[in-house]
Structure formats: structure tokens, C-alpha cells
Amino acid sequence: MNVLILAAGYATRLYPLTLNKAKPLLVVGGKPIIEWLVDNLAGISDLETIYIVTNDKFAADFQAWSQSYQKCHPEFKFKIVNDGSTSDDDKLGAIGDINFVVTHENLSETSLLVAAGDNLFTGSLADFMANARDTEVTVAVYDVGDTEAIKKYGNVAVDAEGIMTRFEEKPK
Q1: Which of 81, 125, 70, 71 is nearest to 106 (CA)?
Q2: Reported pTM
């Protein structure tokens, strides 16, 4: 099983904070946001490679972070994938980046956990992955509990069987 961390955005809404630093590399609670996510991957027994897709602006920063992190956590193998974008105007977007990595790294026949690199949560993903293995596709969502808050994130609808029937990114 492989992991794909989406980290190719430009976080323009957070400028100037993210002008020269990718949002997943911002420090929260003493460590970069992405590190919280990677720490939560511990315990996934068949984890092969963690792919981090980023842009040309921040690829070297993610490479430096992954090399530093790996010194203390040699059990993790990273591959930084540069999607070639240079600004918010030519970015591929989440779906475009997933397709880019799956195609260029030949991952279409492998189990793949996709996670946003700027999502901060605690708790191991090992139990989630154990449950996900029983289905062809598993999607985890979090109920923010507020229709106004949804406008900053994404909105999904599911049917009675728990099948996702609609997804809307940052609804107006």
C-alpha cells in the first residue's frame, strides 16, 4: 500500500504567511502540519512509499523536510513528486495531481491512501486502513457541523447505504 499526500497548492488565502512556505510545512504544535499526518501512518503494516505531490516552488522544501524526517524515522520511504506548476494560475488541482502521480508513478494497480497535506488531525490511520481493506473504495469525511463552515471546505452527500452521491468543493 502507498500513500499520496496532496501538497501542491499555493495557499494564497494565507499570504503572506505562505508566500515562501507551503501550508503543510507550517509549524503547528511544535511540528509541521504534514508531520502530524505522517506520524499517524505509523502502524500501517504494509506501507510501501509515501508520495508527496507538490509544485515547483516548494519541491526542494519538501525534499529537505522528508530527508530530515527520515533520519529519525527510517521506516518511512518518501518520494517527492513535482507536478511542474509554478503558480496558482497553472496548478493542476487535487484531482489533477492525483491523476499526475498515479500515471507518472504507475500506481493504478496499487492500494492508495490519498490525504491532504494541510489537514491536521490526531489518531492513527492504521484502524481506518484496516476497515478500508474490506471495500473497493473508502472515503473519510468529517462533519464540521455548520453550513457556513462548509463554505471553506467541501461538501458531500451520501445515500442510505453510505455511498457518496455528490461532492462540491468550497460551495458558495
Answers
A1: 81
A2: 0.86
